[in-house]
Amino acid sequence: MGKKQKDVLDKMKPKFVAQAAEKGHDPQVLEKIWKDWEAFASYAFNKSHSTCYAWVAYQTAYLKAHYPAEYMAAVLSNNMNDIKQVTFFMEECKRMGLTVLGPDVNESFYKFTVNDQGAVRFGMGAVKGVGAGAVDTIVQNRKDGNYKSIFDLARRIDLRSANKKAFENLALAGGFDCFTDTHRAQYFHMDAADNISFLEKAMRYGAKMQDNANSSQVSLFGEASEVQIPEPVVPPCEEWSTMEKLAREKDVVGIYISGHPLDDFKFEMRYFCNARLEALKNLEPHVNKNLSFGGIVSNIQHKTAKNGKGWAIFNMEGYDESYEFKIYGEEYLKFRHFLVNNNFVFIRVMVREGWTNAEGKKGEPRLQFMLIQQLQDVLPTFAKKLIIQFNVLDLQEQLIQSLFQLFAGNKGDNQVTFEVMELQKVHKPVVPVAAVTARLTEPADDADDAEIPDFEEDLTADAVEEEETIKVVTKLSMPSRKMKIKISNELLQELDKLQINFKLN
Fold first, then answer.
1. CA atoms of 245 and 261, how far apart (whole Å)
2. pLDDT of 103-148, one tens digit each?
3. Edge-to-edge, what's the strand order for the sheet holding 322-327?
4. What is the band of 83 on the pLDDT scale with cuts at 50, 70, 90?
5. How far apart are CA 300 and CA 321, in angstroms?
6. Read out DSSP for 323-390?
7. What are the angstrom distances between the C-alpha of 425 and each of 312, 463, 469, 496?
8. How much is the average pLDDT of 276-286?
9. Dihedral (C-alpha) 397, 398, 399, 401: value to the nearest 10 degrees?
10. What is the DSSP letter of 421?
């Protein structure tokens, strides 16, 4: 019936009626049943399926609208073994404005959950190498209270269920970030004398504490003796760079959770990149234009053509999109040293018209590589001037002093310009479209003597709300002659913290 094979059904009908009649069923009733089945095969089968799907679609749409965090946590849990699906739904969480937090031994469960603040918490079971047994012992033993440190965790949980691999991958995924006295790099710091990591030392400490507790040693005087085992010393070492931390995080989770490698270059991306990588999917609107991108190089393949010339294929990853580039000839020879995996690069291309073949047919637009350089060098190379923008009402002595101290500590060769503006709020009436349409289409009592409607009166009568805009009344631009600064990421981040509006160049 589902395949609608009418000829097969017709052959089966005599056999069905005959055998059912032999068992005492009324032939008229059998004919009725068969006709209902035929109707089902032609239409009702599809109807029943569409009804079920519509009902499920309604239910899920309702849950997503009214319980977005809980719904997305359930969807992520249902797809936690498929990293592509997890990545897709994480992007959907971002689009919805939901916060997704990384795994945390003090809050996470095996699957994705929603915490008390309404954020989606990553499930520990979604971390590679962390099995159900390890998660279960962590969850069960924290019922007595949150873990205070890596040592507290190691001495309380069942170390037979949570092995070294589980500890390492939880550390890499950020599961121990709740322990503020230690950072991820310290867990993997190797002791030159013992040739073991700090994380292994913490596990051995926990195992010794448990053995001591289980031995139930009793002293000569009948009192339980407690052997004091000192906690290992947390090794001093530098934190990993953002790229290294996130790359290792991605290795065990499959995606970036606690941030994105390009977060360190947000000013370069904001002020010097004029397009997104997805713009390259359709080059026609950009012919004869320069496009600039920032991103991470990956999946590089250096190749040699039949004529012996080198060329390459490489991917460039942005925040939430990627694009595969091909580079040939002189451009490859000029820029190939930048094509290194996990390298942050800035690329400027010119979109040229496609080549015209012998038949006069023009091909697809092509890319000409104008510039490839390290993303880290973009600010020193292109940033020439910093423009600080103030609302005159926000000028306070404390703010001026903070700026002066900041600039004094960042001296360089770049110019600073101050723009002081007087702003005014303007309220503009918004007229409902339906009201305007109704007045334009309203028939006059006498068509010949109809007058043009007075829209000034109508605006006042029908405006139901006002639109507020900011208008610049006066602007005073003051370039500083003496003050020269060095424009850097650190300086711009401090301006962000002070909530000061600024522009570059």
1. 9
2. 999 999 999 999 999 999 999 999 999 999 999 999 999 998 999 9
3. 322-327, 310-317, 290-304, 344-352, 366-374
4. confident
5. 17
6. EEEEE-HHHHHHHGGG--TT-EEEEEEEEEPPPB-TTS-B---EEEEEEEEEGGGHHHHH--EEEEEE
7. 55, 18, 6, 24
8. 90
9. 90
10. E
Token readout for 34 is 């068969």
99-111 burial string, b = 16+ CB within 10 Å, else e? ebbbbbbebbbbb
Share of the chain above pLDDT 70, in %: 89
Compute the radius of gyration of the chain from its Cα atoms. Answer: 34
Q: How far is C-alpha 135 from the geometric centre of its chain's CA atoms?
A: 25
Name beta bridge partners: 369.
349
Is the pLDDT at 235 greater than 80? The verdict is yes
pLDDT surpasses 90 at 39: no
Find, among 93, 104, 70, the residue nearest to 320 by Cα: 93
How far is 415 from 230, CA to CA, in rounded Å?
A: 57
Q: Which residues contact 73 (CB under 8 A, 6 or more apart)?
A: 111, 112, 113, 114, 120, 121
* Secondary structure (H, E, C), 153-194: HHHHCCCCCCCHHHHHHHHHHCCCCCCCCCCHHHHCCECCCC
Type and span of the H or E element at 12: helix 6-22
Token pair for residue 311? 């060329």
Residue with tokens 């006002």: 466
Structural tokens at position 53: 């799907």
User: Which one, of 264, 131, 141, 271, lies nearest residue 210 by Cα?
Assistant: 141
Distance between CA 200 and CA 239 in Å, rounded? 19
Both structure tokens of 405: 């101290």
> Residue 3: phi, psi to the nearest 5?
-90, -5
pLDDT greater than 50 at residue 200: yes
Rounded (5°) CA angle 96-274-364 = 100
The C-alpha angle 63, 66, 68, rounded to 5 degrees, equals: 70
Question: In 3-state terms, the chain is what percent helix, strand and coil (to 5)?
Answer: 45, 20, 35
Residue whose entry in the numeric block shows the structure tokens 């950009």: 286
Residues 6+ apart with CB under 8 A from 48: none
Say whether 319 sits in a helix, a strand or coil: coil
Q: How far apart are the first and last CA of the chain?
A: 71
Tell me how far apart the alpha carbons of residues 394 and 419 are, in angstroms, rounded to a whole number: 12
* Cβ(294)–Cβ(269) below 8 Å: yes
Orientation angle between helical segments 489-497 and 397-408, nearest 10 degrees:
170
Q: What is the mean pLDDT of the chain?
A: 86
Question: Which one-letter amino acid corresponds to residue 457?
Answer: E
What digits encode the pLDDT tens for the residues 451-489? 444 544 444 445 556 777 778 888 888 888 888 999 998
Say if residues 169 and 220 touch (Cβ distance below 8 Å): no
Question: What would the two tokens of residue 181 be?
Answer: 């006295």
